[in-house]
Amino acid sequence: MPQDADPIFSRAALRSMAAGILVIGAWAGSAQAAESVYTDLDLDACTVLETHEEGAGVELECAGHDGIPVYVSDGDARMDVDFGAPNDLFETFGPFNTIGDKVEWRLDENGVPFAAIIRFHLDSGVTGGPEDRAQVLVVSSIGQPGAPGCVVAAVDAATEQANGVARGAAAFAARHVCGTDAPIVIGGNDPKVFSMGGAVPEGQ
């Protein structure tokens, strides 16, 4: 299981991304120019690459869009998802979590995927009530062998028009430098949503 690792902060890149995120209307053109396709994610149908006794962990390779694999790491009741190629980070949230069964792939004008969006379901398990739970749309860049992708942004699903905001954030995937730029967390003030290691709130 990859060890948790916080991305190195690039202040200039963070300022650039934060400025763009604050101007959500500026995303509209990019979001409308791109298109989405959806694929199912059935973990039971994935190939098991490796299992870990500690934390009952497992590494899976799953079918994605147009031959692009989806890599799912599950350990200690928390999940990490990579697209195109696995990376060395375990990018997940503090609370226990699972992932949804749909992947939204963002395609450029040539039909080439440049980002993927998947829903995380968080549950802190503190009280057993609805206040323990949250949903987050996680936006990732798509990697390839030798150049893996990573999480670009996490959007609180309670945010108004959260799906559109996530699609807009996907437009920054090509500019996001994995291992240097930190993912941005957008919307709300739920500490569960802001618990991804190395992530920074919108505008900071």
Characterization of the model:
This protein is mainly beta. The chain has one domain (11-201). It is built from 3 helices and 11 strands. The protein has helices at 11-22, 28-33, 162-170; strands spanning 35-40, 47-52, 57-62, 70-75, 78-83, 96-107, 113-123, 133-141, 151-156, 184-186, 200-201. The strands form 2 sheets. Strands 1-6-7-8-9-10-11 form a 7-stranded mixed sheet. The longest helix is centred in the first third of the chain and has 12 residues, at 11-22. 39% of the residues are buried.
**DSSP strand tally:** 11
Report the β-strand fraction as a percent range: 35-45%
Mean pLDDT: 85
Helix-strand string? HHEEEEEEEEEHEE
| Rounded radius of gyration (Å) | 16 Å
Largest sheet: 7 strands, mixed
* Tally of helical runs: 3
Our count of domains comes out at 1
Task: Catalogue the unreliable spans.
Answer: 1-30
Which structural class is indicated by helix and strand composition?
Answer: mainly beta
Query: Which sequence of strands runs across the widest sheet?
Result: 1-6-7-8-9-10-11
**Termini separation:** 30 Å
Helix content: 10-25%
What global shape is seen?
globular
Detail the topology: elements first, then pairings.
Elements: H1 11-22, H2 28-33, E1 35-40, E2 47-52, E3 57-62, E4 70-75, E5 78-83, E6 96-107, E7 113-123, E8 133-141, E9 151-156, H3 162-170, E10 184-186, E11 200-201
Parallel strand pairs: 9-10, 10-11
Antiparallel strand pairs: 1-6, 2-3, 3-4, 4-5, 6-7, 7-8, 8-9
Keywords, separated by commas or semicolons:
single chain, 204 residues, mainly beta, 7-stranded mixed β-sheet
